[in-house]
């Protein structure tokens, strides 16, 4: 078991935030609205990929940080470049992104760690294909967040956490709502990065995944099962257990941001949709 994998007490309420690369702009808007309203009724948080970095900034009280990361730094060619990828480099250069944001827009780690809500970051163990749910600490935070955001192939390295190579948490558990329930939470708020009704389709060419990841067969297996696990989480959200009070905040149908969107107007609109979707929850309006 990874260090810090499970907390000591049973939580009652949880906040779960999905990833999705640039689609994380929606959750950035949701969580900035939470900050505006000082809304923090959660015992634990679980985040995946961009969802984990969004949660880290929210817990640290850094309003607007992830909006800036996504709409500015993540849109620069130093970070995202398909041409570089075709030449054998990173499509998403997380090394560059982490280095520059550490220098210019650093996460407030002391504030994050000092506040009382633990953050669990989801990664995927390369050697087993299993999800790992690791509690963020001052020592592991930066590498842990990078590991959760490390889309296989798009980022060609595997960050090492507790001696184990890790990759994108979304491979093994894109929406860790079932994990939150298993940890004891019965009041769960889920922030999705796709509109309600979305179902993930199976991989069209399994042979290609097996060929691309022939050196990491368990990871290939996990990628082939990703749609099944994703849709299991959606089924849980659509029909939670009788003892589970579930709140869902999802983008509306007009949300037009994809994994690699860099259009500034679309990103800013996605952020505003996130803020608008969160506001009724905090003002007591029905429907969320």
Report on the structure:
With 288 residues, the protein is an alpha/beta fold. It has 12 helices and 8 strands. Strands 1, 2, 3, 4, 5, 6, 7 and 8 form an 8-stranded mixed β-sheet that branches. It is globular, with a radius of gyration of 18 Å. Mean pLDDT is 93; it is low at 1-7.
Chart the SSEs and their pairings.
Elements: E1 13-17, H1 25-36, E2 44-48, H2 50-59, H3 65-71, H4 82-86, H5 94-104, H6 109-114, E3 119-125, E4 131-135, H7 141-148, E5 160-161, E6 164-168, H8 177-182, E7 187-191, H9 206-212, H10 217-224, H11 226-238, E8 245-249, H12 264-283
Parallel strand pairs: 1-2, 1-7, 2-3, 7-8
Antiparallel strand pairs: 3-4, 3-6, 5-6
Gist of the model:
39% of the residues lie in helices and 14% in strands. The chain contains twelve helices and eight strands.
Mean pLDDT: 93
Number of strands: 8
Radius of gyration: 18 Å
State the helix count.
12
Say what oligomer this is.
single chain
Low-pLDDT segments: 1-7
Proportion of helical residues: 25-40%
- Could you give the order of the helices and strands? EHEHHHHHEEHEEHEHHHEH
Q: Bin the strand percentage.
A: 5-15%
Structural class: alpha/beta
How would a crystallographer describe the biggest sheet?
8 strands, mixed
**CA distance, first residue to last residue:** 36 Å
The geometry reads as globular
């Amino acid at each position: 078991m990874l260090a810090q994998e499970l907390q000591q007490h049973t939580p009652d309420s949880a906040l779960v935030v999905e990833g999705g690369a640039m689609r994380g702009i929606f959750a950035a808007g949701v969580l900035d609205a939470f900050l505006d309203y000082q809304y923090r009724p959660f015992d634990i948080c679980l985040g995946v990929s961009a969802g984990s970095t969004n949660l880290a900034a929210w817990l640290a009280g850094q309003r607007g940080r992830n909006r800036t990361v996504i709409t500015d730094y993540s849109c620069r060619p130093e970070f995202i470049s398909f041409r570089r990828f075709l030449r054998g480099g990173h499509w998403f250069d997380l090394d560059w992104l982490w280095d520059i944001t550490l220098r210019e827009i650093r996460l407030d780690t002391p504030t994050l760690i000092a506040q009382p809500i633990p953050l669990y970051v989801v990664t995927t163990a390369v050697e087993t294909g299993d999800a790992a749910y690791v509690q963020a600490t001052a020592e592991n935070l930066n590498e842990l967040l990078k590991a959760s955001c490390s889309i296989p192939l798009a980022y060609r390295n595997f960050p090492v956490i507790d001696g184990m190579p890790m990759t994108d948490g979304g491979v093994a558990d894109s929406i860790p709502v079932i994990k939150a329930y298993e940890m004891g939470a019965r009041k769960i708020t889920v922030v999705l990065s796709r509109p309600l009704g979305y179902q993930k389709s199976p991989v069209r060419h399994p042979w290609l995944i097996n060929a691309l990841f022939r050196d990491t067969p368990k990871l290939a297996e996990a990628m082939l099962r990703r749609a099944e696990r994703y849709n299991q989480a959606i089924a849980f959200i659509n029909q939670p257990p009788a003892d589970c009070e579930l709140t869902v905040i999802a983008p509306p149908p007009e949300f037009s941001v994809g994994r690699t969107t860099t259009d500034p107007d679309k990103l800013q609109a996605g952020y505003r949709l996130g803020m608008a979707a969160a506001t009724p929850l905090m003002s007591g309006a029905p429907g969320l």
